[in-house]
Amino acid sequence: MQVGFTPVADDLYREIILDHYRHPRHRGRLDPADAVVEADNPLCGDQIDISVRFDGDQLAGIAFEGTGCSISQAACSMLCDEVSGGSRARARDVADRFRAMLVEGGSCDDLGDLEALQGVRAYPVRVKCATLPCNALLQALGHAEDRP
């Protein structure tokens, strides 16, 4: 079942996306970082590097650099904002639920600004743009867990 949006909701979501694109949160690179993942979507040219640093189980720092469309860059800003300061488990949960929302039409409850991207699922080619940061984050979490 396709979720419908009112024009007011569309405008609100568009503004949230544009705000994160124009004024990205967590832009930069962490040094030192526990893991750095470079991810790209060769079909459209989106490129994102995510760096993470942990203090025990807490995500003490997260940052990204990248280029690409407004969807990929805004999604990265939103994702970093949503998981910053949380536990590894919460970061993994948010990334998994965000991907499920876009790919499977799952629930978007408790995803913060990421909920603004739920309309992207109506455009399958743009889903790859929006999920690129979440795939990179999940990979970074895996790399960080593999470190001694």
TrEMBL record:
Any Pfam family the entry gives: NifU_N
Gene3D superfamilies hit by this protein: 3.90.1010.10
Residue ranges of domain NIF system FeS cluster assembly NifU N-terminal in the record: 13-129
GO molecular function list: iron ion binding; iron-sulfur cluster binding
Superkingdom, taxonomy of origin: Bacteria
GO annotation (BP), single: iron-sulfur cluster assembly
CDD domains with a match to the protein in the record: IscU_like (cd06664)
NCBIfam families with a match to the protein in the record: SUF_scaf_2
PANTHER family: IRON-SULFUR CLUSTER ASSEMBLY ENZYME NIFU HOMOLOG
The family this protein is said to belong to: Belongs to the NifU family.
Protein's name according to its UniProt entry: SUF system NifU family Fe-S cluster assembly protein
